[in-house]
């Protein structure tokens, strides 16, 4: 039996598994219909999750996803999850359904022997400023003699999935790594965790734009709204995370960097929609549990 998390979400935000009975007539004034959804946690399944994972990777890298062999990358990610025994998917219609969220790890050591991963690592290095500590740390993984062992955390979800589901996913993942390491499983001695995410730029005066990210989390009360709203921009220049949990996680990051997507189209004053950018953050593995506690407390 999979682990389950039960929560309430707006009916318009997510595929429904079960619909509650119509509410009484005295609730007709409500503008949001609430339902209960069972979120089931499953191990990644290469035979089922391949297409959905490729879709999530394209969402993560936007137009730059064309720079990689997304199919090979997705296959490697799922294969690594199976070999490590680490990773979780979130589904609502059973194990054969598409995941709404995905998290697992990819070991970035010895990338020369991993043709699906090496182009991604080279891409990430190219997005970092020359001679920056962040870049130097990532470059160090290319050396077989490096003492650093970095795990890429592949964490992506539908933007309208309730944010409260993410702290348990992260905690299960890191707990699985620590358990495997204590049991002596080879290759689990990670020194750092690397996360790739997306941010968007919202200029002053654009706060009333109705965008997809406004549906990022359900807000049944003003107290909840304050908890999940990204209060602090991701760096400067009015940048905000698509996924609020990453905002709180970054408070514990060793380094962060916002980068332009290589294939993004030039923007001008007539450009429509928000401007998307990539974001990287890296964490000390020995302090990851404390970082997750900060995120969990912020989203409680």
Automatic annotation (TrEMBL):
Signal peptide: none annotated. The keyword Nucleus applies. Its main location: nucleus. It holds the Pfam family BCCIP. Residues 213-222 have a biased composition (Polar residues). InterPro entries: BCP1_family. One of its GO terms (cellular component) is nucleus. Belongs to the BCP1 family. Involved in nuclear export, actin cytoskeleton organization and vesicular transport. This is Protein BCP1. It comes from Filobasidium floriforme.
């Amino acid at each position: 039996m999979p682990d389950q998390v039960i929560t309430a979400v707006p009916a318009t935000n997510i595929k429904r598994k079960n619909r509650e009975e119509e509410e009484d007539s005295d609730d007709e004034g409500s503008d949001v219909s609430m339902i209960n959804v069972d979120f089931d946690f499953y191990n990644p399944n290469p035979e089922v999750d391949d297409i959905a994972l490729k879709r999530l990777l394209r969402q993560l890298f936007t137009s730059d996803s064309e720079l990689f062999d997304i199919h090979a990358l997705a296959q490697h990610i799922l294969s690594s999850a199976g070999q490590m025994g680490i990773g979780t998917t979130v589904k609502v219609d059973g194990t054969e359904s598409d995941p709404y969220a995905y998290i697992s790890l990819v070991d970035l050591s010895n990338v020369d022997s991993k043709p699906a991963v090496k182009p991604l690592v080279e891409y990430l290095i190219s997005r970092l400023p020359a001679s920056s500590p962040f870049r130097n740390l990532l470059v160090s993984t290319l050396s077989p003699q490096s003492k650093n062992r970095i795990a890429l955390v592949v964490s992506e979800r539908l933007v309208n999935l309730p944010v409260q589901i993410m702290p348990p996913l992260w905690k299960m993942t890191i707990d699985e790594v620590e358990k495997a390491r204590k049991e002596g499983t080879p290759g689990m001695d990670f020194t750092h965790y690397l996360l790739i995410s997306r941010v968007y730029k919202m200029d002053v005066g654009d706060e009333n734009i109705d965008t997809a990210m406004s549906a990022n989390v359900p807000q049944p009360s003003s107290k909840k709204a304050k908890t999940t709203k990204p209060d602090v921009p991701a760096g400067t220049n009015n940048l905000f995370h698509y996924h609020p949990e990453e905002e709180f996680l970054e408070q514990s990051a060793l380094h962060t960097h916002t980068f332009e997507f290589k294939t993004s189209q030039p923007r001008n004053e007539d450009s429509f929609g928000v401007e998307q950018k990539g974001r990287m953050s890296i964490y000390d593995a020995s302090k990851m549990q404390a970082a997750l506690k900060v995120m969990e407390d912020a989203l409680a």
